[in-house]
Design a protein that fits this description.
It is built from three helices and no strands. By secondary structure, it is mostly helical. Helix 1 crosses helix 2. The protein has one domain.
Length: 101
C-alpha cells in the first residue's frame, strides 16, 4: 500500500526494488497481531498475510530516518516518473547506503 498505492506493480517488482535499496530486512518482518482491516483509515484491500511486502508500516513506526527516506525513493522508482525532485534525499542515510544509491 505504501510503495504502490495504485496497485500497478507486481509483488516481485516491489520486492526487487526493496532489495536493491538494501531494505530486504523489511521483507522478513511479521505482524505482532493477527491480520485485520484498519477501520480508522477505512482500508478495504486485501492485506495478504501481513508478512513480506504486506507488512504494515504504521506511520513509519520502528524505522530509522534513513529507512523512511529509502522507502520514499523506492516509491518514486516504482512509479516510474521521468522527473523526481528530491531535497536532501540522502541527508539521514549512512555513507555506505548513500554510495549504493
Amino acid at each position: 500500500m505504501n510503495l504502490d498505492p495504485l496497485n500497478k506493480r507486481t509483488d516481485e517488482e516491489i520486492e526487487k526494488v526493496l532489495r536493491q535499496a538494501g531494505l530486504e530486512a523489511l521483507l522478513t518482518k511479521k505482524p505482532e497481531k493477527p491480520k485485520k482491516l484498519d477501520e480508522e483509515l477505512d482500508i478495504k484491500e486485501d492485506l495478504g498475510d501481513g508478512t513480506g511486502i504486506y507488512f504494515r508500516l504504521n506511520d513509519g513506526e520502528g524505522l530509522s530516518a534513513g529507512e523512511k527516506q529509502l522507502i520514499c525513493i523506492c516509491r518514486a522508482v516504482l512509479r516510474g516518473n521521468k522527473i523526481v525532485l528530491m531535497d536532501e534525499a540522502t541527508a539521514n542515510i549512512d555513507i555506505k547506503t548513500e554510495q549504493k544509491i
